[in-house]
Amino acid sequence: xxxxxxxxxxxxxxxxxxxxxxxxxxxxxxxxxxxxxxxxxxxxxxxxxxxxxxxxxxxxxxxxxxxxxxxxxxxxxxxxxxxxxxxxxxxxxxxxx
Amino acid sequence: xxxxxxxxxxxxxxxxxxxxxxxxxxxxxxxxxxxxxxxxxxxxxxxxxxxxxxxxxxxxxxxxxxxxxxxxxxxxxxxxxxxxxxxxxxxxxxxxx
Amino acid sequence: xxxxxxxxxxxxxxxxxxxxxxxxxxxxxxxxxxxxxxxxxxxxxxxxxxxxxxxxxxxxxxxxxxxxxxxxxxxxxxxxxxxxxxxxxxxxxxxxx
Amino acid sequence: xxxxxxxxxxxxxxxxxxxxxxxxxxxxxxxxxxxxxxxxxxxxxxxxxxxxxxxxxxxxxxxxxxxxxxxxxxxxxxxxxxxxxxxxxxxxxxxxx
Amino acid sequence: xxxxxxxxxxxxxxxxxxxxxxxxxxxxxxxxxxxxxxxxxxxxxxxxxxxxxxxxxxxxxxxxxxxxxxxxxxxxxxxxxxxxxxxxxxxxxxxxx
Lengths: 97, 97, 97, 97, 97
What we know:
- Five copies of one chain form a homopentamer.
- Chain A is mostly beta strands.
- Chain A has a single domain, classed as CATH 2.40.50.220.
- Chain A has no helices and eight strands.
- In chain A, strand 3 and strand 4 form a beta hairpin.
């Protein structure tokens, strides 16, 4: 999984029928030191993530292993909202700080 | 999923029989700020996308989860036509603007 | 899928038994403007491609969705020979030109 | 598989229910000469890896082939703790050295 | 598939039980002109490859399609030892030269 920040959302009315009612969020990918990378991904949200949340997303076929995305044409899913992470013994990110 | 723009199409008469009648579109991949990236992909169209449409495509095994692509040797599918997206609270793309 | 040009072939006598009699072709990957990229892939040929043909290949599990590659340890398959493609309304490649 | 070093962990209380009780470790990816690369991945630990351990992780659908990760939305799993490796006849890394 | 050279091996006693007795080889990835790339992968050997052999490996779920790797948490498998390959009509590599 990689770390992403919810920075936007995508609206589509004409899409595969299996994707009806799925929230499509735009994630900026971050590195392990909490710095933004010049990469993004559009992911289905399965955990109720909100703007500016730091999240984990799973890609590929693993993105279809949530109840919500099972069998859908979706290659990225937000499967966790991050509370905190540490790197080399130091706290790098703390949601409630 | 990544964002792409329909910029062309590929014609092939000699192909795997499962791909008969499948429309193969050439997508230029775009970044989150609506700028073209130096990357492309050829994707099967499952939503009736047209030239210059901004679309989402799913890659890998997820590209085979539409009714149209099920069981086919296809690793990229257009599964949504984008109406709009926003980034950091600002509207970046609006189809009908 | 990406565009490749058949530029060579690989010979192997000691290989997984499921790959017996499979033709292994060396593809140079091309960009959307018909320029070679500094990337290659070795793919199983399922459509009878020949030297210098421009082809499409599918990667990952999708490479196992042809009758020929089903269940085989193969992560890239040529599933179409390209006749032509266009980009931004202009013809970029024409096999019979 | 690629080589990684356990450099941290990620805490998440709000996540897909299938991921309850899964330990999420932050891995810095290393090259074959035991030098850190500027890449990371967050992986589920299935072997009891600890801080600073050098490990192997499997990505994609292969990450769901351990008993612990079967059917879960997880695209990277630590499936081995490395004791040692050699390169070109020379020992590069030795856990117990 | 990509071309690799067997340059080392990885030893691990603590690993997923499905990987018991699997030989884990370190491959340096090579380009189509037989020049080393700055990339490596650790792959399970299913064909009895030895040091300095040039091999093909399959990645992703295709790495689990050999009898030996079926159902295992392994995302790269050596499935062929290369005898020779040619590029643009010229022989680039010959095992027995």
